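step=predict obj=Membrane protein insertase YidC n=554
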Amino acid sequence: MDLQRIILIGGLLFTVMLIWNAWQEDYVRPQQEQVATTDRGETDTPSVPADGAPAGDVPTGEVPETSAADTPLSQTQTGLGAGERITVTTDVFRAEINAVGGDLRRVELLEYPVSVDQPENPITLLNDRPGDLFVAQTGLLPAGTDGSPAPSHHARFEAAQSEYRLSDGEDQLRVDLTWQEDGILVTKTYTFRRGDYLVDVGYTIENASGEPWNGHMYRQLQRTPPQDGGQFFIYTYTGGVIYSPEERYEKIDFDEMAETPLNRTFQGGWAAMIQHYFLSAWVPSQDQKYSYYTKGIGSERILGMVGPQTQVAPGASETLTSGLYVGPKIQERLEEIATGLELTVDYGILTFISKPLHWVLSLFHSIFGNWGVAIILLTVLIKLVFYKLSEKSYTSMAHMRKVQPRLMAIKEKYGDDREKLNQAMMKLYKEEKINPLGGCLPILVQIPVFIALYWALLESVELRQAPFMLWIQDLSVADPYFVLPVLMGATMLIQHRLNPTPMDPIQARVMMLLPIVFTVFFAFFPAGLVLYWVVNNGLSILQQWYITRFVVKA
């Protein structure tokens, strides 16, 4: 019995340790620091980032140091002003494009408020506030020493109007920016679609000069690393990710971008900067090779890619395109966009369990329309799947409880003689056909499922600000009144009462303290996860009571 208790306690503590370690290693920034929460009416002067464009010809992924010619102009030199911002509004975006560079400098996600209490204030995913920079950039580079005119993300573009809006009845909105030099006309086009967070970004190069045009298109994300700190247990990984056919999903943190710059060439793939619930990703055509790179320029970090060389003959034109996803981590949509992009919903090593759990959870939600109800039904389903294992565990515990008086008598008889005590206990177990490990092994089998469900609930953007009932209006944050954690502690205490009392007094005190410890610990967990635990404990109590009352006595 002592061994069984030790294994059970160890299993629970091991689960907590796994969760804690994963949080500490992968999740380094609080949710409230991941997104700008400033109102749209702020008047902070936008910063002009340090140059992130790779200089010169980069066909093999080598990214030379920025040359003097690539040094960005100051705001005064470029004449950057509010009038050079192009505003784009769709049903899901409110975005700003800078005429200098044609960069996407600000994106608000209209369907995702900052908090339940601020429904009119959307999250700002891309932003160019000083100290909080996160922008998406593209540009063209001349190939080698050819010297073909090519607009980088510092070139000045012209636009026909300063405001674009997706009208009712329209499915897409096109924004054209133009640049011209020495007979080369470049049109940079953004294409926004209704209900979609994927934006097409392209360059059409028209060569009216007498010489061939040779160049590359580059795409990059530039961001100021966030500062650590914030609320306890509201941490999330914020950093870079690339996907390649060989290495597949690979995280690149901000320090690594500067200290060990990436220079790698492979076909297809994508590059992203991710955070809790949201991401921005460049997804190029998958049938060409790209040189992926990272840089540290001052306090800013850059992750990007350079495309293959393109030649445009005199009198001809060519179009280069890429996809830019700026939005929530909706798994089904990410799977449609690019191979492996859904892995940004990071379930860890138990992805093969978490993904089916998320699918079932989504199925229940599609039927009942409430994520809290979906969690309860998923808990019931998991309990049914593991019913037989749980039955063996509770039956073993019930038999242990029946022989508890005889075990206490054996302990009193042999006292501190551990060898004879253990021999007598094993003899009793054999006579009564009791497996001392029978109560804990079935429970240990279920621990990976709990961990997988934990990540499924934590990583699902669908649960963000999802209401349940009464006081629980956001299942992704802690219960504001700690009702669920207290209920969870109460159910753990009831379970403790239903189990046989440990013979070791120290062990008995530890088991009494566990409900209190877990109540405090889970007070900081998302309400959706605690709801699962409360329902699971409640079902376990009913099952254990039924088995003890009817099955064992029969």
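step=describe
Residues 2-24+355-551 form one domain.
step=end
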